[in-house]
Structures are given as structure tokens and as C-alpha cells.
Design brief:
By secondary structure, the chain is an alpha+beta fold. The chain is 57% helix and 18% strand. It folds into three domains: 97 residues, no CATH class; 74 residues, Helix Hairpins, CATH 1.10.287; 142 residues, Heat Shock Protein 90 (2-Layer Sandwich). The longest helix is centred in the middle third of the chain and has 49 residues.
Length: 431
């Protein structure tokens, strides 16, 4: 297992390494350039010119016209004008049996030969003038700018890989968080061996495992409770059937009818609880579906059940990729809810809004206050207990709709139509 490194030490160490290497390279380059402009380089150049002049002029006498011409071609001045004061010798350079003595002169150098001490070899006057005219401040600014640019480039190169590695990990974290928001609990985040991001990776993965474990325990508990309730309900239903066969007065018959209705509600709670658990854990089977035609058939099959349902489609043809089983559960529950609470009219419309297909179901019943809408989507919620008792509501219909919408990535919104309730389903654009 790789050793974990602090992120800040990681970055600081990278920057420090870049600085050290860059400064080392700069000092090496500066030292090399200084060496190129040193007195030794000056003496070496004179040595080369002396060799050339000896081959061409057959002499090394600096007063010889031929020798002076060659030195002039190589940008050196030869004269017998001694400096006002005897300069300090910087060093000497060997030349056969003689030596080339090098001394400072203005902004450059001058030299003497051991065997010709009265003659001076100096840089050409125009070169000395150019050196004297140089602006040292401009040189400092340009050198500093060049060093800063090189330093920034070096830091950028050294920081590129660690920063890119961190950005890639953050993108993976973003993807994992989005998947978790979509209830995909199979995601895991790769561990980045840099502190504190390694701890964040471990905690994120541990959180996903805990959520997955809690959901599984919840599913098993709900499934077990629903199944366990079936046995006593079946026995109660059998006993009630035996009692209803016995002759009795009007009060007994009414009480047995109430018991029969209560058992129906309990069985519905059990069935819906099982259905909710299955919705949360079952796999979707996505198929292509003609939504407008499918809805018309669904509404036609419900006509004549007591309430008038009007239909309006602003889209000629609409094909979606969805799970028909989940979609049937959504529409059936919403229509049943509307039929239960509406006074006399239900309106269903299919529209194109904001680039998405929207299905709108509106009734003119009592509706749901805006402050209670979020509560209405919770399992076993009861907004008006007296109304629920009259209608047989058990607080699971909208919870089933909400869960199924989440599985299909359908946006569900409830609005107070005043009067009535308006339910809007915005389908994903996966046509």
C-alpha cells in the first residue's frame, strides 16, 4: 500500500523542487555566460589571432602592418598608448614561450605580450563604446523578466501532473455524487493517496456502504412485515366469512360489514407496502412506448367509472423510452387519486414545455395546501384523517408515484389548482 502524503506537502514539495531545479539551471547558465565574457575568453581570442597572424604574416611583431590589419579585422585595437595608471593584472594566458597578460580597460579588457610590453591590445573602440552606452537598469529588468518567465514555466510544468491528478479525482467525486443522488448505490470512489483526500475517499465509500446496508435492512424488514401480516389477515378473513354466514340482527350485520372494510384496508396496506419495497429495489425494463396513444387507451378504459375525464394533446405523436410497468403504476394511482377527490371533472393534457414532454392531470376537488405537498409524498402520510377514512386512503398512493417517478427519472410536481390539485409529470428527453 502506498504511503499517504499530505496534499499541502505534496504541492509545496513540488514547488520547492521546481524552484531548486530552476535556480540551479539559471545559476549554471549565468556562470557559463560570465565565463564566456571573462578575461580568459579575451586572452584566448588574442591567442587565436596571434596564431593566424603568425601563419599569414610570418611574424608576431605587433608593429607589423600585416599583423595590425589582421587584429583590426578581428575587432581589436593595437597601439602604444599606455593607460594613465598601471592597471592590476587579472591573469595571464600562455602563448608558446611568451605570456599574454590581461588587465581591465574601461568596460572591457586590454592585454600585453611579455616580449612586447610597450604595445597594448584592446577591444575595438566601438565595442567599448557600445558597452559604455548599455543601460544597466534595462539589462536588470530584462534579466529579471526572463528569470521570472522561466521560473513560472518551470513551476507550471511541475504542478501540471499533481493538479491534473487532483482535478481528475474531483471529477470522479462529482460523478459518484451525481450517481448517488440518482440512487445508484453501487458507486465507489477511487482512493487518492494524498492527505486529506484519502480520508475523504474512505469516508465517502463507507457512507455508500452504510446507505446500501440500511436500505437492504429496510427492504428486508418491510418485506418480512408485509408477508407476516398475510397469515393473520387470512385467518381474520376466514373467521369473518364464517360469522357472516350466521344469521344475525341489523347491528351485527353492519358491524361485520365494517370489519370486512377494515380488512380490505389492511390488505391494501400490505399489498402497497410490498409494492413500494419492490419499486425501490427492482430493475427497470426500458422499452419504446407511444405515450399519446397509450394514454388514450388508458383513459378510455376508465370512462364510465363515475367521473368525467377530458383529454387534450398538443403533441401529434410522442414516443418515449420508459418502463411500462412503472408508468402504469404512476398513471393508475394519479387517476385513482383524482377520481377519489374530484367533484365532477378530471382534465388530462399532454404538452411540450421547455423542451420536455409534460403530462398534466387536474381535478377540481379539495386539493392539497402548498405547505402539505412535501408531506403528501411521504409513505403513510395522512393530511386529512377524516377524508382518508371516508375515501379509504392509506397514505401510500402518492408515495408509490414519487418512488416510481424517481426510478424513471420523471420530474413530479404537485400544485394547488384552487380548487383542486394539479399534478405535472415532466418526462426525460430520451426519445
Amino acid at each position: 500500500m502506498m504511503k499517504t502524503v499530505s496534499f499541502f506537502r505534496y504541492l509545496y514539495g513540488t514547488v520547492a523542487l521546481a524552484l531548486v531545479l530552476t535556480l540551479s539551471a539559471l545559476f549554471t547558465a549565468i556562470y557559463y555566460l560570465e565565463e564566456q565574457n571573462s578575461w580568459q575568453d579575451f586572452a584566448r581570442d588574442i591567442q587565436q589571432v596571434l596564431l593566424i597572424s603568425q601563419m599569414k604574416c610570418q611574424t608576431e611583431d605587433l608593429t607589423n602592418h600585416c599583423v595590425q590589419q589582421i587584429f583590426a579585422i578581428e575587432d581589436f585595437d593595437i597601439n602604444q598608448e599606455a593607460p594613465p595608471t598601471q592597471p592590476e593584472t587579472l591573469g595571464h594566458w600562455p602563448y608558446f614561450d611568451n605570456r599574454i597578460l590581461v588587465m581591465p580597460f574601461q568596460m572591457g579588457y586590454q592585454a600585453q605580450l611579455d616580449n612586447q610590453p610597450d604595445i597594448w591590445i584592446r577591444d575595438a573602440l566601438e565595442h567599448l563604446q557600445e558597452s559604455a552606452d548599455d543601460d544597466p537598469f534595462a539589462d536588470i529588468i530584462s534579466t529579471a523578466a526572463a528569470m521570472a518567465l522561466i521560473l513560472l514555466l518551470a513551476i507550471a510544468v511541475f504542478l501540471y501532473w499533481p493538479v491534473k491528478r487532483l482535478i481528475n479525482w474531483l471529477k470522479q467525486l462529482e460523478t459518484a455524487a451525481d450517481a448517488l443522488a440518482q440512487e445508484d448505490y453501487s458507486v465507489s470512489l477511487p482512493v487518492l493517496n494524498i492527505s486529506p483526500f484519502d480520508q475523504l475517499s474512505h469516508r465517502f465509500n463507507r457512507m455508500v456502504l452504510l446507505i446500501r446496508s440500511n436500505l437492504e435492512e429496510k427492504r428486508l424488514l418491510a418485506n418480512a412485515m408485509a408477508h407476516e401480516m398475510r397469515t393473520p389477515l387470512s385467518r381474520a378473513r376466514l373467521a369473518l366469512g364464517l360469522l357472516q354466514r350466521q344469521p344475525g340482527d341489523e347491528l351485527q350485520t353492519e358491524l361485520l360489514g365494517d370489519l370486512d372494510r377494515y380488512l380490505d384496508e389492511l390488505e391494501k396496506v400490505t399489498d402497497n407496502s410490498l409494492q413500494l419495497v419492490r419499486l425501490q429495489n427492482s430493475e427497470t425494463n426500458m422499452t419504446s412506448l407511444s405515450l399519446d396513444q397509450w394514454l388514450q387507451e388508458k383513459l378510455h378504459s376508465r370512462q364510465g367509472q363515475g367521473q368525467s375525464i377530458s383529454w387534450q394533446a398538443d403533441i401529434d405523436a410522442c414516443t418515449l423510452v420508459t418502463d411500462e410497468r412503472f408508468l402504469t403504476l404512476i398513471i393508475d394511482n394519479l387517476l385513482s387519486n383524482a377520481e377519489r377527490y374530484t367533484h365532477d371533472q378530471i382534465h388530462v393534457s399532454l404538452k411540450q414545455r421547455y423542451g420536455r414532454v409534460s403530462l398534466i392531470i387536474t381535478d377540481n376537488g379539495p386539493g392539497i395546501p402548498a405547505s402539505e405537498i412535501e408531506k403528501a409524498l411521504q409513505p403513510f402520510s395522512r393530511l386529512d384523517e377524516s377524508r382518508d377514512r371516508r375515501s379509504g386512503g392509506i397514505g401510500l398512493g402518492l408515495a408509490l408515484v414519487s418512488t416510481a417517478c424517481q426510478r424513471l427519472d420523471v420530474q413530479l410536481s404537485l400544485n394547488d389548482a384552487q380548487p383542486g390539485l394539479q399534478v405535472v409529470l415532466n418526462f426525460p428527453d430520451n426519445r
